[in-house]
Amino acid sequence: MRLIVTEKDNAARRIAEILSDDSASGERRNGVNVYKWGGQRVVGLSGHVVGVDFPPEYAEWRDVEPAELIDADVVTTPTRENIVATLRSLARKADEVVIATDYDREGELIGKEAYELIREETDAPVERVRFSSITEREVQKAFENPDEIDFDLAAAGEARQIVDLIWGAALTRFLSLSAKQLGNDFISVGRVQSPTLKLIVDREREIEAFDPDDYWEILADLAKDGQGFEAQYFYDDDGSEAERVWDEAAAEAAYADLSESGTATVTEVRRRTRTDDPPAPFNTTAFISAASSLGYSAQRAMSLAEELYTDGYLTYPRTDNTVYPDDLDPEELLGAFEGSYEFGDDAASLLDQDEIEPTRGETESTDHPPIHPTGELPDRDEVGADAWEIYELVVRRFFATVAEPATWAHLRVVAEAAGRSLKANGKRLLEEGYHAVYPYSSAGETFVPEVSEGDKLSIDAVELEAKQTQPPRRYGQSRLIQHMEEMGIGTKATRHNIVEKLYDRGYVEDDPPRPTKLAEAVVSAAEEYADHVVSEEMTAQLEADMTAIAEGEATLEEVTAESREMLGEIFEELRESRTEIGEFLQESLKADRTLGPCPECGEDLLVRRSRQGSYFVGCDGFPECRFTLPLPSTGEPQVTDETCEDHDLRHVKMLAGRDTFVHGCPRCKAEAADESEDEVIGHCPECGDSAAPEGQRNEGGEAAEGEGGKLAIKHLRSGSRLVGCTRYPDCDYSLPLPRRGEIVVTDERCEDHDLPHIEIHDGDDDDPWELGCPICNYEEFQARNAVENLEDLDGVGPATAEKLQDAGVADPEDLHEVDPDAVAGEVQGVSADRIREWQDELAA
DNA sequence: GCAAGGTC
User: Fold this and answer.
1) Average model confidence (pLDDT) across chain A
2) Which DSSP string do the residues of A124-166 spell out, in sequence order?
3) Would you say A842 and A831 are in contact if contact means Cβ atoms under 8 Å apart?
4) For a tag on chain A, would you pick the N or C end, based on fewer CB atoms within 10 A?
5) Whether A491 CB is under 7 Å from strand B
6) A380 pLDDT exceeds 80?
7) Pick the CATH number of A284-403 from 3.40.50.620, 1.20.1270.360, 1.10.290.10, 3.40.50.150
């Protein structure tokens, strides 16, 4: 039997299809897909199935000096046991093995890891094939010319693993132990995350140190024959054109001159035609950046693209490549969109072009093509709105890369008035080119009328604007990822996760990411004692070392020994400053939790956590001062940089995924609740007059008048509002009300529940939210939630969600109890296997 | 409970 090993299941399936001429069948072993035909088996790994770590005796942080990790053994152990077991059992029956992992450094290492596992089971020959994309031609050619594993290249990857582990673990443990931050709140450091964090912190330092300068700009409304346009004052500043006037008196003088002249004379007209080339094919970074201008975070964009990839609609989304492979036939791919409702017209117009020549970016790599549609079209309702928007972006990007350039007519006009110069730059689209199929990049025109030198223009208005220079802007997530790519840190598959990691570690908050005090302290400490780990040089040096290993000019042992020595020197310095560093980190951690002064004792109010795990605001003066304020029960509190003017306390935001909200000043919230009175709106349906519990009922089956609970609108000190029973805590019946907006009880009544309708007036808008009867509203809310929960399932859109509900699955929870075959029979487009996958996922 | 790199 011949065993073929790929890096992932998707690749295994496609290679089996190609090599078997579509006759392969799949089976599941240990939860791993194995494709078979004749004497052949193909199995896909899941990237690395083994990982490096220290031996177990180093596991307990408190029992090990971090510096001991520097010379500790590094061992490789299976991390994906089921895949390893399947690989082993397949290997035992193989008399020939082919490694077909991705064609890049990490792929070589993953292949070598598989090789080592296989060698423990068999002496069968092991070959290596390399192909630059999984297409019939490439794959056939690769299998006809098999090669050998490049152990040097794999060793380069191993060296990286070892260096990253030792530096990351030793420094992470050192900082965490010195600040006594163990458990979930450890303080991490790493070759990629720390330089990325420094980038953010450095930018924040620039912002904080920024000292704005005043300047003035003068704008004028000009017109020729009634056609108005805007022009800007400029002057000659040592040979270059300047618009900003730094001196107020000079600005006012120019403004006065221009205001007093009724006309200006055209002194210069310059026309130029510019081509605006279509963009290059999408690599991961460019894709994330385009998705970010549609409002998607890096993480969200990637997870949608991964879903579309797994479902077969897009190619692999993790790629650096910006050049389509030779075997991509643009005409054929455009043809796949011809009949489509959304894309048909655009595809047809592109096919009408005289020539189709895709654009090329700068990087051509061997593992995966640029991200493009496969030609298989998803059902718009089925994939959901977000996935569709991402899909359309990728389709249109592909369209743009095969479209014609756009051309623009540029018109620059300079006019003089009272010795002062005004300029206007016009821009008109001559040939729409790729903009016709790619609406995401700006194609805005600026109107300037046709004028000739010597023409008189009227000056209709002049405006003097006082401005200030602005600090640099924070990096957005996608800008950060671009920066990482430029610095050569991280990879296509990890950069967006690194940004996410900075959020998880409490190093950055909000979007665009803003560093916490902890982040500033970690970066400062690293800069002082371990500068190497926060610099991009560490990666640059590692890359050079890896190249040397791959080319046989150095060995893994030499490179890791040198790296260990360097880290050892760093620890010599660190040892002496341990307490100092620990205190510094602890202070910064406290600063991130500090709201402001306690109204009772003047010490700091801090976000704290009770023994039960709930958050509240407490005083740093505890136990002498017992002042507290409650916080909402949902989400993780985050102290924002906004401050309440009344109480000098920073506002709190509650992070809870989609349900994240700004709580505001906790003292304002508590005081507002103290001042409000409960407003009774009806009887409690659980214990009210018409539904009293057994013991309290009178002969008529009702509670005695006045004894039953009433429903009232209540304001809690934590900021929540609800319709709840007046007999609380004896009766805990309650219905949620929105956190924001003024609650207004109307005269309209719900006949079913005998309750008034409620409206929410938010801000000054005169179009209130008609919430209606609170009971009806809550029931609808629950039903809506159920549909949304269903849509969270992989491959379920609004249409399928509805069908699932019709089939008795109102909520994902119901899936536990259903018979997959029965439901699959009732719901078109959902297989029993899919349902089993959902069940497995929910169980996990 | 550490990193970064694969992958889901």
Assistant:
1) 91
2) --EEE---SS-SHHHHHHHHHS-B---HHHHHHHHHHHHHHHH
3) no
4) C
5) yes
6) yes
7) 1.10.290.10
